[in-house]
Specification:
Helix content: 40-55%
Number of strands: 10
InterPro entries: 4pyrrol_Mease (IPR000878), rRNA_ssu_MeTfrase_I (IPR008189)
CATH class of the largest domain: Alpha Beta
Radius of gyration: 26 Å
EC number: 2.1.1.198
Subcellular location: Cytoplasm
CATH architecture of the largest domain: 3-Layer(aba) Sandwich
Organism: Faecalicatena faecalis
Order of helices and strands: EHEHEHEHEHEHEHEEHEHHHH
GO molecular function, one term: methyltransferase activity
Distance between the termini: 81 Å
CATH superfamily of the largest domain: Tetrapyrrole methylase, N-terminal domain
CATH topology of the largest domain: Cobalt-precorrin-4 Transmethylase, domain 1
Strand content: 15-25%
Number of helices: 12
Structural class: alpha/beta
Shape: elongated
Amino acid sequence: MSGTLYLCATPIGNLEDMTFRVIRTLKEVDLIAAEDTRNSIKLLNHFEIQTPMTSYHEYNKFEKGRKLVEKLQEGQDIALITDAGTPGISDPGEELVKMCYEAGIPVTSLPGAAACITALTLSGLSTRRFVFEAFLPTDKKEREWVLEELEREFRTMILYEAPHRLLKTLKLLLERLGNRKVTICRELTKRHETAFAATLEEAVSYYEANEPKGECVLVIEGRSRSEALREERERWEEMSIEEHMDFYLSSGISKKDAMKKVAKDRGVQKREIYNYLENR
């Protein structure tokens, strides 16, 4: 019988956010796979956890992942922890989970701290619908592709950024998204936790004068639906009503249905379009 992989969330700053269940599990498993054993040993010592550790990180995730799967197949239980937060979110844990599912090995997740969710709930922006983008890609083509998606995104957006790149990223977002609302969260759960709510323009001005410190989570307002609708109507209004009608008639729909679509696009009653076409 195979063992189980336990995804164990660890604190993102405040050690009191460690759950009782995670502490117990880390003591009971046969092995702990950690992103950085030098960092994690401090956490384990604090909670008097003496379980053996091994490294599992971005640069050995495939080779070490296969070895961990073999141990699980032999019946060992393994806990996976990241430097901070929930494994699998913006870290190589997702690869190990895939390997386990392919090998038929049970996986369970022990919930706890996650910087993206902590920042979202702290942001003061809409939490109903959101998208997590982690760090913007370093590859220019991939970054451009992501930015094009974000320009059209209606949901609240969550990004991670390092302090030395924060100002450059804020300027880029201002240029591409316009002057949206943003909340920049730093030192989450720690003594000097801050949530700086501003516009992107205000944030750029602030960080031009103040050097950012600590990893940052950016929570950014999504695109306004009313603004998108207004822009769409403006594009249609650049066409004459005749051209607008021809656009739909050329697709093979009836004149009646074309008038309905033209009226909807322009935000007017169908009768207005009918009267215009009858009296031209």
